[in-house]
Write a structure and sequence with these properties.
5 helices, three-stranded antiparallel sheet, two-stranded antiparallel sheet, 136 residues, globular, single chain, alpha+beta, 5 strands
Length: 136
Amino acid sequence: MAERTALESEIIRKCLSRSELQCSFLEYRGYKVIYRRYASLFFIVGTKADLDGGEGAENNENELGMLEFIHALVETMDRWAGSICELDIMYQLEQVHFLLDEMVMNGYVVETNKTNILRPLDLMERESHKAEGMFR
């Protein structure tokens, strides 16, 4: 766990130190890192070569596809919370994780349609409001 935390902080430092004129892809310690900045938020995705490929396996992940995924995630979060900011993510982290779970399954992007992603969140929110009304 300490190694993972160190790796994450190194990657974050690398992304923060890059200028806006540099591309949003970099390779670091066997990982392909794709990031995008939206105002003060950085969204970072790291991919690694398939474990089934053996020792010299290549990472064939499509960088532009991952950038598009990040953009779809941010647009979905914007639709859900208005203009997304750090506080929305911090105080509603469970909903953000649920949103991500709707988009990604077992490491693969399975849904990018905003309406389909937000429907379960809306249903949960409506049901929680009904439950609050019952106890008043």
